[in-house]
Amino acid sequence: MSDVKVELEASIPSHSPKRMYKAMHHAIFSKKDNCLPSALLCMAASELLGAPREAALPTAVTLEILHAAIHAHKDFYSLETHKHDDERPSVGKMYGLDVALLSGQALPALGFQHVISKTSPHLVPHKILTRVIIEIARSMGSTGMYAGLYLDLDKKSITREDEVMLVLEKIFGEMAGCSVLCGGLIGGAKDNELQALRRYGKTVGVLYEM
User: Fold this and answer.
1) Model confidence pLDDT, tens digit, residues 105-128
2) Which of 7, 20, 132, 163 has its CA 20 to 30 A from that of 119?
3) Which residues pair with 83 in a beta bridge?
4) How far apart are CA 172 and CA 7, in angstroms?
5) Do 184 and 45 form a contact (C-beta atoms < 8 A)?
6) In whole angstroms, what separates CA 125 from the centre of its chain?
7) What is the pTM of this model?
């Protein structure tokens, strides 16, 4: 995944305001295991279907940028620890909650700009790229990961197994399902194959979040 990391580094501006861009960089690269799950799932699905690696690379990078945005916003209801689950310092702890808020809002704009500007129409037709962008926006929005964050606000009230599973499905199941689906779209998967890929991704996402 070295090519993904290189493109991620290149996607983050280095000009002023430097503190915000450093916070954005921290949100993306501060994972303790340096794992890029969304990018990995997207690239694997597209390559499985025979697409060239560079076709899915911009989408894979964008998925990681948006995943980082979710974690930057997650700081606002994790104030009791200021750390993520793997004990790395949060964006809010490192740069302050005001900068965490701004970086969390700037990251999605950066992500969508990246996938639109860096995806070659010779490798990914505009029609397919539009579907990819719609899927990414849906998985991140009020029916996707942000819905999971909302449900997770009141952890003490979540006691039933189906409630726990719903939170897990939303927090990363939706994004993982979208990652595999986007790779499938870029690779030319048929509609029935796309639905199977989404289901597979959601399952992997729940296991990852557990």
Assistant:
1) 899 999 999 999 999 999 999 999
2) 20
3) 89
4) 23
5) yes
6) 22
7) 0.88
